[in-house]
Fold these 2 entries.
Entry 1:
Amino acid sequence: MPESYHVDAYKVEGKIDYDQFAKQYGLKPIDPELTKRLEKYTGPLHFLLRRNIVFAHRELDWILNEYEKGNPFYLYTGRGTSKGMHLGHLMPFMLAKWLQDKFGVEIYIQIPDEEKYLAKKDIDMSLDEIHSMAMDNVLDIIALGFKPAKTKIFFDTNYANTMYKNAVRVAKHITFSTVKDAFGFTNESNIGLLFYTAMQAVPAFLKSVEVGHNVPCLIPLAIDQDVHFRVARDVLGKLGYYKPSIIYTKFLPGLDGTSKMSSSEGGNTIYLDDPPEVVKKKVFRALTGQQATAELQKKYGGDPDKCMVCQYYRYFFEPNDKKLEAIFKAERNGTLLAGEHKAALADTINKFLKEHRRKKERAREKLDKFIVSD
Ligand code: TYM
């Protein structure tokens, strides 16, 4: 990875070059031929795909080949709790929910409630506290509309009988030198985290274990999680399972224009439980890249690619391409001034969060239908 940025599961820094990342790790672009094949089954594409925010894949073409042969896939994704979820965390889940609806397939959702406990040195929560917070995250996930009959959600700590047995089979094939290279572990890294990647591999072949024959698996995620599966894919091949296919989203940027909205950058991150005044305050500090004064802005206009308000519409809040283009145009020709632009976005985000919280409350009643334990 070039010095200018770094991406792995435990550290994301600098300005990410997505093309470079894809090239370095052998991800394939989602090209028009592939989107055409997808569209055959899904109808009009999700805006994340149309806008190249879902930008790369590993063997999505193979998943479609198998699907066409009558060998459907299941989906797998996850959430490693440390705090409440933010908007960026929802993106791979939104994509997963869309894929579940369009292909009518099952999804496995792993909640590794030990991962961040092991990964974050300064975490001040006990395992039990993380578990309760993870339960709250699950409500956020269910609120997106996953189908109970086709969705299995499990926590590492109380699905341990199933998870651990299979993780051990994976762990036997992963050497210290492999995880050291892949994750940058050092002599100071704790052994729990060295093992953890084996736990994240399990749901990628768990369905095959359960049914006794190989079932293709498709994993939606953002690029920080790729490192786990670069390690796991080789091992699963050795164990006689299919290697999972992956579909990658770019990161929702931070409000200040940094590459990734992140839990550790609270001021530039919109959490799903942020109250309306907090959202407004954060959005008003967002980077817009507009000219220094309203006069200059009217005269020269701004650059939507650098304006985070525009980008939040593109990544999340304006699914309609025509309406998005109108916002971008107004930004370019200077008719949209920073104050009103930000006020409108804050309003849109608050409406979204209000509706999300309503669905989250309703999710509480359905919780039992989703969670499996052993
Ligand atoms: P976690 O909890 O850090 O993140 C959950 C999911 O959100 C993605 N993500 C983002 N996507 C868009 N914009 C952002 N700013 C952003 N920040 C995070 C992550 O890539 C992830 O897909 N180890 C995992 C949990 C996990 C998992 C999995 C994830 C277990 N099994 C299988 C994906 C697939 C974690 O801590 O994710």
Note: The beta strands are 5-8, 11-14, 28-29, 54-58, 74-78, 107-111, 151-155, 217-222, 245-249.
Entry 2:
Amino acid sequence: MTISNAKISAVEMYVPEKILTNKELEKMVDTTNEWILERTGIRTRHICEKGQAASDLAAEAVIKLCKKRGISPKDIELIIVPTVTPDMLFPSTACLLQEKIGADNAWGFDLSGACSGFLFALSVAEKYIQTGIYRRVVVVGSEIMSSIADYTNRETCVLFGDAAGAVLLEPAEEGEKGIIDILLRCDGSGGKYLYMPGGGSLHPATHETVDKKMHYIHQQGRRVFKFAVTEMANISREIMKKNNITSDQVKLYVPHQANMRIIKACQANLGFTDDQIIINIQKYGNTTSATIPLCLYEASQEGRIKKGDYLVLASFGAGFTWGSILLQWEIENS
Ligand code: COA
């Protein structure tokens, strides 16, 4: 069996046009622009129109991704869609997306890893490339968090936004490293702090589940916050140590974007300078499995990363789930 590293060979994103500002949220719930900015760092988030689903956002991102790489959707062999907001419980968003973009030669599936979904999905995609089974795998984190946010609950609705971010994985070429190492974790005892209880097999949708708002995000913010600042920093440090990479060798740290204060605490803990970290939560809010590809796309567009740079990706999310990936960026700046 040929073992070759996998590399990210293209990255794209899509956000819906409509923007929801903090000022608009002030009219919907008992909050202020100042509170949201100070406690979360978020200024705006993009929100879908009614009728738009996760597969629609994913389709926009993947079509752009194929164009950028100069391939047809028919060249894709596998599609993995990490998401907590699939179009429906089944069929999978990956199947609906496959039809929408005409990826006739691909199969695919959804993956449930919450805000760590993108890293979990990258790890699966990487194995298919490493083993030589496939040469073109798409991972597209696509979320319509506005579909499960309760816009009468100020503690959650201000945090989230809608977006899709997609990467193409291909075999690394000679001299390229691509994905170097992956560490992933979960701790189910954290499940009670961030969850959506309704609509699954435990509490199938009924009038009662809807009346009790069980189809929305439920969260104990402070518990999640504490977990995030500790574990996202710890696992990032662990992956660097394991691979003998010091923080000054890292060109860009790409943390999950859930709260500016969590990001800043991890930055301080790991000793990264402002030039070594990407933060775009102010524009998009927390887009769950899409935050990391959104960051990769913007860093690449802005010329902040170039071929050969070391990147550390890091996430945490419901489950609890968390993880980190060390990679070498292999895309030439155009
Ligand atoms: N506007 C105004 N006040 C708000 C508010 C809002 N949008 N949301 C909460 N508050 C209030 C609370 O009701 C509370 O009021 P009280 O003191 O009168 O009871 C006060 O602000 C402080 O609440 P607290 O929960 O301690 O605030 P916080 O500083 O922890 O910030 C979060 C709340 C949710 C922003 C923060 O805990 C957080 O980001 N946690 C992590 C969430 C996360 O990352 N989730 C996704 C994981 S992938």
Note: Residues 31, 35-36, 39-40, 115, 154-155, 158, 194, 219, 221-222, 224-225, 228, 258-259, 286, 317 surround coenzyme A (CB under 6 Å).
